[in-house]
Amino acid sequence: GQLRHIKTGEPFVFNAREDLHRWNQKRYEALGEIITQYVYELLEKKCNMTKAFLPVDATDDEPRSFIYLSPDALTNPDKLLVLIQGSGVVRAGQWARRLIINQDLDSGTQIPFIMKAMEVGSQCCWIIN
């Protein structure tokens, strides 16, 4: 679950080019978008969650967003776990992009919490985006 260079095994280096801060920042942001897509994939495949768009009856010209739901999120009246990420560039399923990049997926994503909830039988889960 750690981000490592394929050839050297070294962790991510923000200043890949010391003289080009803007280039380094754009590279970091692009990596963040790739990580977001990967976390979404893990939510769907590893956690068996589905993406639901809100509002459900929005027209094409209305703003929409999405949430992730466990299979029983709309039918389980007994338990509900709602996970809300922070603000900024952090997206559904993530606590902090920086933790994902500099430490690992377990530290920076909500996936361990979701897996623990599923383990103890509290599968009803909504992840707000």
From TrEMBL:
A matching Pfam family: Arb2
Span of domain Arb2: 1-123
Superkingdom of origin organism: Eukaryota
The protein, known as: Arb2 domain-containing protein
Protein source organism: Ameca splendens
